[in-house]
């Protein structure tokens, strides 16, 4: 775990573990005890942790794109550009950015006046469902935070696309087919995880746009699909994607 890629994978695993642990255990407990109750402080904490871990994962995937870019395009400088101190700083920047964004989102959401009951129509506390409880027109304050979110997301997405553009150019210049295959295989897991995360983000964006419409237009089925995709799919699938490169795991699956 001392090499840059596995150091970032360690951080990604911690984020995935934390993300799924924020929502699933409480939902399971509520199901077993036939209750849907959660305290105000518990709801705020759940919302903060979920936004924090999800946004930090997106920032970390952006950092990992830079890691793959240096590994493929500047291999001789890999040890210099991605030393242990640089890796720690980049990982800390991803965690810190996610933390600040979660503070902004949570503070903005729970500063709204609520006058539409106290029933969150979802299996965990999420921003769109809480906005439905806000007084008429008050949820429009969330638009400013969403603009910041879109700006950050687009910036990270552009950086990832540019990085992989350079990676593909460098790989196609490799004369041997075996060398191209080896270079592509080092990027394939990260590219798969990024693609999955972007697809989930698109679903989430669609859901957030729907939440800003009048309640009569909103679809409960869309709400549930967005929540499941956002909270369960990435933490479950990410370890499988990266584990497929592990030879021992492949052999165990073949035997199974």
E-strand count: 0
CATH homologous superfamily classification = Rhodopsin 7-helix transmembrane proteins
Oligomer: single chain
Compute the number of structural domains. 1
Low-confidence stretches: none
Question: Taking all residues together, what is the mean pLDDT?
Answer: 79
**Gyration radius over CA:** 20 Å
Principal-axis shape equals globular
Largest sheet: none
Question: First CA to last CA: what distance?
Answer: 28 Å
**CATH second-level architecture:** Up-down Bundle
Helix percentage: over 70%
Transmembrane segments: 37-61, 82-104, 143-167, 188-212, 224-244
Domain G-protein coupled receptors family 1 profile: 1-242
Family: Belongs to the G-protein coupled receptor 1 family.
Membrane topology: Multi-pass membrane protein
Concise synopsis of the structure shown:
The protein has 256 residues and is mainly alpha-helical. It is built from ten helices and no strands.
Q: What features would you describe in this structure?
A:
- By secondary structure, this protein is mostly helical.
- The chain has one domain: Rhopdopsin 7-helix transmembrane proteins (Up-down Bundle), CATH 1.20.1070.
- The protein has 10 helices and no strands.
- Helix 2 (40-73) runs antiparallel to helix 7.
- The longest helix is centred in the C-terminal third of the chain and has 35 residues, at 177-211.
- The chain is globular and about 65 Å long.
- The two termini are 28 Å apart.
Give the tags.
mainly alpha; 256 residues; Rhopdopsin 7-helix transmembrane proteins
